């Protein structure tokens, strides 16, 4: 395999791995938005159920776009912004569930911080994808007429 072929396979793998979380998280929100609506409402946003449906639709569609490599740079930038936004709004605070033991709240706060760091890390992956594009194994490449040829 040439370096270019290897890079294109790595970009395909990156697209699959980066998109999977959003596809698998977005679809269930469309079927049952209650949990997400509760988080949105708890953060003080109005129309929580509508926003949960919109978040699910965005995650599903943008994730599919990255997966198939269609409008990849735009989708990657939007997903990076989404990941940063959700990190700051939903995962940056201390968790304090009434009547929970202090140790349990401490563990929940630690997990919340890990979710924030995970989202920020994923945002970095999407920004890298936006910088280099989808690679040869993508609809973007096919639309440009630069489809990959097997090595």
Ranges with pLDDT <50 over ≥5 residues? none
Mean pLDDT: 93
C-alpha geometry:
elongated
The largest pleated sheet is described as:
none
Q: How many domain regions? A: 1
The string of secondary-structure elements, in order, is: HHHHHH
Residues in helices, as a percent range:
over 70%
Span of the ends, CA to CA: 6 Å
Instruction: Report the radius of gyration as a whole number of Å.
Output: 18 Å
Which structural class do the helices and strands define?
A: mainly alpha
Q: Strand share of the residues?
A: under 5%
Q: How many beta strands in the DSSP annotation?
A: 0
* Tally of DSSP helical segments: 6
Give an account of the 3D structure.
The protein is mainly alpha-helical and 151 residues long. The chain has one domain. The protein contains six helices and no strands. The protein has helices at 3-31, 34-42, 48-68, 72-90, 102-132, 139-144. It is elongated, with a radius of gyration of 18 Å.
Q: In a few lines, what is going on in this structure?
A:
With 151 residues, the chain is mainly α.
List the topology elements.
Layout: H1 3-31, H2 34-42, H3 48-68, H4 72-90, H5 102-132, H6 139-144
Helix pairs in contact: 1-3, 1-5, 2-3, 3-4, 4-5
Keywords:
151 residues; single chain; mainly alpha
